[in-house]
TrEMBL record:
InterPro entries: FAD-bd_FR_type (IPR017927), FNR_nucleotide-bd (IPR039261), MRET (IPR050415), OxRdtase_FAD/NAD-bd (IPR001433), Riboflavin_synthase-like_b-brl (IPR017938). CDD domains: FNR_like. Keywords: 2Fe-2S, Iron, Iron-sulfur, Metal-binding. It comes from Nitrosomonas mobilis. It comes from the Bacteria. This is Oxidoreductase FAD/NAD(P)-binding domain protein. Residues 2-104 form the FAD-binding FR-type domain. The keyword Ion transport does not apply. It holds the Pfam family NAD_binding_1. One of its GO terms (molecular function) is 2 iron, 2 sulfur cluster binding. The keyword Ribosomal protein does not apply. PANTHER family: NADH OXIDOREDUCTASE HCR (PTHR47354), PROTEIN RFBI (PTHR47354:SF5). Its cofactor is FAD. Coiled coil: none annotated.
């Protein structure tokens, strides 16, 4: 069962075109693994009720950091419209903890993340924590967006790549470079059968990448997915 925490909304800010980040107080003693998520419950002042006041978001923040951050594409839904209006300083409820989209323990196996759009949120957490912990995981991130303006956290990811010799960041902008395909994957992943794969992003993209990886020789048992539904 999840635990309920009352936390303060510290900050809201736009971090990419149409993408909002929410920074929350971190409850005392709150522990999680990079890649996990919680439900953000909006206050009654928004006019929402138990049927529509709650949504699950991956933590963008890493466990070593002293606040909790979540981010979302701001679609035109009741929840998203209400979330945009909650003032900084308001109390919200956090229900946690969920999820197993977490980095494998075995540092001898390389990890390849193929991510689209807002699917970057758990991945930023995982890479930040691995960089902080100086783990020996060899990590490659292929991060696809239509344009640079839509891509969140690229500055931070570039910084992690500069700090962490084991981390390679591959941004892909589909409006000019085309979609992630066999050639691109093989260019950055020489031995396709070897790594553990982590796919996160819109459902269609995740399913397509999973099929493509299996087709080109990845081990189906070594593919972990996190699908971000439209809402």
């Amino acid at each position: 069962m999840p635990t309920s925490y009352d936390v303060r909304l510290l900050q809201k800010k736009e971090i990419a075109e149409g993408t909002m980040e929410f920074t929350l107080e971190k409850p005392k003693g709150f522990e999680y693994r990079a890649g996990q998520y919680g439900d953000l419950v909006l206050p009654p002042s928004t006019g929402l009720d138990d049927s529509n006041n709650k949504h699950g978001f991956s933590f963008v923040s890493a466990p070593f950091e002293d606040t909790l951050r979540m981010a979302t594409r701001m679609r035109d839904s009741l929840y998203k419209r209400a979330a945009a209006k909650v003032p900084e300083g308001a109390m919200v409820q956090l229900l946690a903890l969920w999820g197993d989209f977490t980095l494998q323990k075995n540092e001898a196996v390389s990890a390849v993340f193929i991510t689209g759009g807002i699917g970057i949120t758990p991945v930023r957490s995982i890479i930040a924590q691995a960089t902080h912990d100086k783990t020996n995981h060899k990590i490659t991130l292929i991060y696809a967006n239509r344009t640079p303006a839509l891509a969140a956290y690229t500055d931070e990811l570039e910084r992690f790549a500069a700090e962490n010799k084991n981390f390679t960041f591959v941004p892909v902008y589909t409006s000019t470079q085309g979609h992630v395909n066999t050639d691109l994957i093989k260019r950055h992943v020489p031995d396709v059968a070897a790594p553990r794969y982590y796919l996160s992003g819109p459902e269609g993209m995740v399913k397509a990448m999973r099929s493509l990886l299996i087709e080109i020789g990845a081990d189906e048992d070594n593919i972990k997915t996190e699908e971000f539904e439209g809402y």
